[in-house]
Amino acid sequence: MTVTALTRKPVRRGRIALHLGCLAALLVMLYPLAWLLATSLKPADEVIASLDLLPGRLEWSNYSTALDGVNEVSIWRLLGNSLLIAGGAVLGNVVSCSLAAYAFARLRFRLRGPLFAFMIATIMLPHHAVLIPQYIIFNQLGLVNTYWPLILPKFLATEAFFVFLIVQFMRGLPRELEEAARIDGCGPFRSFFQVVLPLTRPALITTAIFTFIWTWNDFFTQLIYLFDPDKFTLTLALRSFVDASSTSAFGPMFALSVIALLPIVLFFLAFQRFLVEGMAGSGLKG
């Protein structure tokens, strides 16, 4: 037996062990999703009493009950409210964070370093620390129980994480491109929109994906600002389902959870290629 054959066996065994370990980790991570899907088809008594993954009998009425809505509000109204808030947050973060990132990454102005450091420091500030002052401001403006408190801050570049992400991406772009644009007569705004912004597309899509997921799953902030059931989102409707019918609504609640999860999965699958590119790419092709 040659030396090459002897060395191949440990390598193959290592690869098999690595693949088995990855498969085991995948099963552990997918188990909660499988449990959610299975529980959404269980009768109410099996949800609490049984620990089996598969239901004893399929209860398709859970989905029909979930599709009827909550508190006389249709599922389509709840879905539309969630899409409106998430879509507005995505648009606000992409526009404002890209403009702020361009200023920090490309422009020269006084106190740029201290302002950038202050912006980075806000990442460590808990969201609950600013919630009360923000609520007081929006209450004085008469915007409580509207969607503006959930959307308007996104247009003010308040998400320091996304500003930092786009800044790091823009710093990897060659400055020669903007210098060539200035020679052709482009100012800062035209250079931003026609040169830098198209190359920053992977970072912008990464920002959009995370913003959509975080806003869609946000419960606490929406609970603080929204009172009218007609303005509720799917996230708030899940809690309202339990409040309205107590433990007997566990089956429909899990069915509504599956329905609420579908837009996130579809949005992620549609843009996952750009997510990887935004994390690892340099912004240039070829």
TrEMBL record:
Residue stretches making up the ABC transmembrane type-1 domain: 79-271
One Pfam family cited in the UniProt record for this chain: BPD_transp_1
Superkingdom, taxonomy of origin: Bacteria
Membrane recorded as keyword: yes
GO CC terms in record: plasma membrane
Transmembrane portions of the chain: 16-38, 83-104, 116-138, 150-170, 191-216, 249-271
Coarse class of the protein's main subcellular location: membrane
PROSITE patterns (UniProt xref): ABC_TM1
Sorted UniProt keywords: Cell membrane, Membrane, Transmembrane, Transmembrane helix, Transport
GO biological process, one term: transmembrane transport
Cellular compartments annotated: Cell membrane
InterPro entries: MetI-like (IPR000515), MetI-like_sf (IPR035906)
Membrane topology summary: Multi-pass membrane protein
Family: Belongs to the binding-protein-dependent transport system permease family.
Name recorded for this polypeptide: Carbohydrate ABC transporter permease
Taxonomy of the source species: Bacteria, Bacillati, Actinomycetota, Actinomycetes, Kitasatosporales
